TrEMBL record:
Protein name in the entry: Terminase large subunit gp17-like C-terminal domain-containing protein
Biased composition (Basic and acidic residues): 227-238
Region annotation Disordered: where it falls in the sequence: 219-244
Lineage top rank: taxon: Bacteria
Length: 244
């Protein structure tokens, strides 16, 4: 459980694998980096105004990848357990890749949402990925990654695998002149973690209730070191919480 005076806001991206692909999940905390001179202790009216100029930072807090062939019924129940965890309950929204999986999977996710007293801010949101939307999603994700606004908690299980997938993105120009993006398939998957991340960032400019944004005074700290040199995994501000 995360213990903070100011709670975070989260999106949860779900990539639904088919016959040869893993299903994967990515929990992302959305953090507002305030402008210089503004602190999170400022009067609420000033904070609301400052948020318009805040820099959005995306912090990957948890990753999950299911074994090949895991039934969607199992995936849906596992996702529900993640959304119901103390760190996320009532603070998150689930976005899932609905491309090519059929309506039945969405029905499973929505059923879990209803049976658990609407555990997220909004009902599960389907994302249908087209050639153009994928290009936009890759661009948004990679820009945040290169600028240091996409941060992966140190020591996070599967964190290194996610970094590897992001670094393996390939841009291909088709004979028609159109552009496609892909991650070469390996024994560890086909970019499933990166896909879950991109789906979770589909609402990259999403601003939930103002009280749900965690505010950061000053520049974001490097993800590989805490301010005093301690292993940041011992600092709850950087530690990945238990979402199960």
């Amino acid at each position: 459980m995360i213990d903070r005076t100011v709670p975070g806001a989260f999106t949860v991206g779900l990539d639904l694998g088919q016959a040869a692909d893993f299903s994967a999940l990515c929990v992302i905390e959305h953090v507002a980096q305030l402008p210089p001179g503004m602190t999170s202790h400022a009067h609420r009216v000033h904070l609301v105004s400052a948020l318009a100029d805040a820099v959005r930072v995306f912090q990957v807090r948890s990753l999950k990848r299911w074994p090949l062939g895991t039934p969607y019924t199992v995936v849906a129940k596992d996702v529900s357990a993640v959304l119901a965890s103390p760190a996320l309950r009532g603070r998150s929204s689930l976005l899932y890749d609905a491309t090519g999986v059929g309506r039945g999977v969405g029905d499973l996710l929505y059923q879990e949402y209803r049976e658990h007293s609407r555990i997220s801010l909004y009902p599960p949101t389907p994302v249908t990925i087209t050639q153009q939307s994928k290009a936009d999603m890759v661009s948004t994700t990679m820009l945040a990654f290169e600028q240091g606004r996409l941060q992966i908690a140190a020591g996070l299980p599967l964190g290194d695998a996610l970094r590897s997938e992001l670094l393996r993105f390939q841009q291909n120009i088709r004979p028609s002149g159109s552009t496609s993006y892909d991650i070469p398939r390996t024994e560890d998957g086909h970019g499933d973690l990166a896909s879950a991340l991109m789906v979770g960032l589909f609402w990259n400019d999403w601003v939930p209730g103002r009280d749900l944004i965690r505010l950061v005074d000053g520049p974001p700290l490097p993800v590989d070191a805490a301010p005093d040199g301690r292993d940041q995994r011992n600092d709850m501000r950087y530690k990945s919480a238990s979402f199960e």
